[in-house]
Amino acid sequence: MKHIITNLNKVFDNRLRLGIMSILMVNDKVTFKDLKDTLEVTDGNLASHIKALEKAEYILVSKQFVGKKPQTSYATTVLGRKAFTEHLDTLEKFLKNNK
Amino acid sequence: MEKQEQHLETLQEIRSLMERSTRFLSLSGLSGVAAGVIALLGAGTVFAYLGASPFDLGAYQEIRRTHVGDGEKWGMTYSTFLLVTGSIVMILAALSGAYFTWRKARKGGYQLFDASAKRLAWNIVVPFGAGGAFCLILLLKHNLYYLVAPATLLFYGLTLINASKYTLNDIRYLGYGEVALGLIATWFSGYGLLFWAIGFGVLHIVYGIKMYWKYER
After folding, report:
1. Environment class of residue A89 by beta-carbon count within 10 Å: exposed (0-12), middle (13-18) or buried (19+)?
2. B21·A22 Cβ contact <8 A
3. Per the CB < 8 Å rule, is A34 touching B114?
4. How many domains is chain A partitioned into structurally?
5. Could you tell me if residue A98 is inside a domain?
6. What is the pTM of this model?
């Protein structure tokens, strides 16, 4: 029982990070603004958690110019998809064992 | 167990975020009802132009014979009249559809024109625009007006099936219905207007009410 809980990925030990990953899992590329609007959080809060996911190499950041404005968008990495899927599997197992 | 509830909640939140970020969920059933009513009014106008009753099936062959030519009524040929009425119906239906959906989005506190709405709009505009252009060519270049109703039904049905990936999945079944009607209408050419009224009018109203009942009541 105990080892399942310790298996839970520490990087995902935060609702907002899980939220960011959930959105990126089902969309190819999402802009900062769209993430912010969907998750309904502040710029600073979102940015700090994006940084954490970026540091873990779970997401990729790309910057491009749309007209004259720079636009930052995000996508998952292979490592990130794997980690997220494993995290969900662990959660699921945990719930099943406790039924 | 507290931990368990927390995990369950997390999973539900993940599922909801995945849904919300890919699908435009503010589509209102009332949009469908409004579009259906407008379509029926439009079809009624065309029946009036033809001087025919939609319920007198025997009269359809007569309509075919008398209106194949370039007879004018109300200062317009049949093709022009179809084109004008069709365009007005499409514009009014789209506007009223947008209004009810905007209302639902506002009520739910969602942004109307977010990424999912843009994706949905694009996936409607491309196939339906192609269908519209196809019908214009049929009408203006080849004068094949009897194929216009079946073609609009077919293209609209395929548009809905495509769009269902980006909004409430229910509209997929409306799409199947429109495609089936379009094919039947192609077979029984001459009854196009009747099938058009059923597809765009009756199906929209029935489906709109059903969706309103399911999601908005």
Report:
1. exposed
2. yes
3. yes
4. 1
5. no
6. 0.76
